[in-house]
Amino acid sequence: MTRAVASPLCDADLVRLDSSGAAFAVRVPVRGDDPYLRGHFPDLAVFPGVFVVEALCRAMAGAAGGRPPELVELRSVRFLAPLLDGDTLTLTVRAEESPGGWDVRAVAYRADGTTTAKLRALFAAAGAGDG
User: Fold this and answer.
1) What are the φ/ψ torsions at residue 108 (nearest 5 degrees)?
2) Which of 11, 25, 43, 73 is most buried, most CB within 10 Å of its CB?
3) Which residues contact 17 (CB under 8 A, 6 or more apart)?
4) pLDDT for 49-75, tens place per residue?
5) What is the DSSP secondary structure assignment for residue 101, as one 8-state letter?
6) What is the pLDDT of residues 104-119, one digit of tens each?
7) Could you give the maximum distance between any two Cα atoms of the chain, in Å?
8) DSSP readout, 37-79?
9) Which positions ≥6 away from 28 have C-beta within 8 Å?
10) pTM of the model
C-alpha cells in the first residue's frame, strides 16, 4: 500500500535578491495547526530545525529552475532562536559556485528580525552524481 505524503513546506515563496542568482531568499509561514507541527511540543508549536534545512533545499531547487541540486554536505548548522506559531521564516541564501556545485551560506530570520539559524552547506550540481 502506498501512502500519499504531503510536503511540509508547500507555502514556500522564493524571492530573488540580485540579478546574478547568487543571492535569494525563501519565506515560509509557521502555522501551529499544520499537521507536521502537532506532535512537536503540542502546546507550543515549534518549527523543527530539519524544516529550516528543507527550506534551504527548496530555495536551492527554486533558484536552479530545473533539476534541483543535491545537498551533499551540511557543513554547519546553528539554531539560535525558535520559530513559533504565527512567525514567518525568511531564509536568505548566498550561493558561490564551486567545482561541481555550490558552497552555500544561509541565515534564517523571524519576522521580528531575530536570527533563528545559520547554515553552511555544499550542494552538487543537478545530475553530477548520475552516470
Assistant:
1) -105, 140
2) 25
3) 23, 24, 25, 92
4) 999 999 998 888 877 766 778 999 999
5) E
6) 999 999 999 999 999 9
7) 48
8) TTTSSTTS-B--HHHHHHHHHHHHHHHH-SSPPEEEEEEEEEE
9) 9, 11, 12, 13, 51, 55, 88, 89, 91
10) 0.81
